[in-house]
């Protein structure tokens, strides 16, 4: 598959332009919303802080929100690329395969029965839930005749997502306190997130981003088929374990801080392939950048849908991603 950007110099230029666009989008996230602010006011909030309501909102809400949205979008975009390459399934993503639902279930379980309240605890239990959900989906999709296939893995992931979502709802019904604490979070939101929360998960995300970039060359070989990858000298067992671990870090960290946000991991890898083709050395960075931009833009839109109240950003990403998901399924791509 050839993308519309076939020259590496052009790809590099577009990537640099994309970084600039990401910065502009984050600036818009800081200044746009129910409270009227401006770029000069945002700068003054850090250079001439006066304790005003606007300056406090910029420092304590808008800037952390923009940074969290960008970090989560980058993580979900990369996680989608890894999952689609590992499974050779174009609709693979943390939300479709139940990884987000598993992480969410474990976090709600921790809030309900273990009294967990800190983001550090959320992070570790989110990682555990993501790992358990991934393992169960992979095991279920590999069972039976024919071994692992894209269709079986998709169905197994859907089963895991439904199972963990049902268990989560069951716990919330019996615990109103937990319902109040996590209901908005479960819809996927970056509102009210603090820089300390981002700092708690950032080391894991940075490791996952870096390792995913290093794995991108091996993703090209693996995409040709596992037998071909082995013939080229790739240790596929180690490679698959490393890539799966990165998905757990990316999805678990994202869910811990922002809740289960859907469809970013499905949409952005396809957009990246449209731009740069099948070379994962370019797909990974383009997906990361596109995911961050898309999530921050969705968060800006979420502020205006039911103003003066705000909709969870997960609702907006679902509205944007559902038509694209239907398009993929109608074309029958996942059956290839």
TrEMBL record:
- Gene3D superfamilies for this protein: ABC transporter involved in vitamin B12 uptake, BtuC
* Gene Ontology BP terms: siderophore-iron import into cell
Q: Where in the cell is it found?
A: Cell membrane
Domain of life per record: Bacteria
For this UniProt entry, which residues form the secretion signal?
A: none
Extract one GO cellular component term from the record: plasma membrane
Coiled-coil annotation: which residues?
none
Specify where it is mainly localized. membrane
Determine if Transmembrane helix is one of this entry's keywords: yes
Q: Which family does it belong to?
A: Belongs to the binding-protein-dependent transport system permease family. FecCD subfamily.
What is the recorded name of this protein? Iron ABC transporter
Q: What is the lineage of its organism?
A: Bacteria, Bacillati, Bacillota, Bacilli, Bacillales
């Amino acid at each position: 598959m050839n993308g519309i950007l076939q020259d590496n110099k052009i790809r590099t230029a577009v990537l640099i332009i994309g970084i600039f666009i990401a910065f502009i989008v984050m600036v818009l996230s800081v200044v746009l919303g129910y409270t009227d602010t401006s770029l000069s006011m945002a700068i003054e909030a850090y250079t001439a802080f006066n304790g005003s309501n606007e300056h406090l909102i910029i420092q304590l809400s808008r800037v952390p929100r923009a940074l969290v949205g960008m970090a989560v979008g980058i993580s979900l975009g990369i996680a989608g690329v890894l999952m689609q390459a590992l499974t050779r399934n174009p609709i693979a993503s943390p939300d479709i395969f139940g990884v987000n639902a598993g992480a969410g279930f474990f976090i709600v379980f921790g809030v309900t029965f273990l009294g967990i309240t800190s983001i550090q605890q959320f992070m570790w239990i989110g990682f555990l839930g993501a790992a358990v959900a991934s393992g169960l989906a992979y095991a279920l999709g590999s069972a039976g005749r024919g071994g692992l296939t894209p269709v079986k893995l998709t169905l197994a992931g859907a089963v895991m997502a439904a199972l963990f979502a049902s268990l989560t709802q069951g716990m919330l019904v019996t615990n109103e306190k937990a319902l109040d604490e996590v209901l908005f979070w479960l819809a996927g939101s970056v509102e009210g997130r603090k820089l300390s929360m981002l700092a708690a998960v950032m080391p894991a995300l940075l490791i996952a981003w870096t390792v995913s970039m290093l794995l991108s060359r091996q993703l090209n070989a693996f995409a040709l088929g596992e037998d071909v990858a082995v013939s080229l000298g790739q240790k596929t067992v180690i490679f698959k374990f490393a890539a799966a671990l990165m998905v757990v870090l990316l999805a678990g960290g994202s869910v811990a801080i922002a809740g289960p946000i859907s469809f970013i991991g499905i949409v952005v890898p396809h957009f990246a392939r449209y731009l740069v083709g099948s070379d994962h050395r370019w797909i990974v960075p383009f997906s990361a950048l596109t995911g961050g931009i898309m999530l921050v833009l969705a968060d800006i839109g979420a502020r205006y849908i039911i103003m003066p109240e705000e909709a969870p950003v997960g609702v907006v990403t679902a509205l944007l991603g559902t038509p694209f998901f239907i398009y993929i399924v109608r074309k029958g791509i996942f059956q290839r």
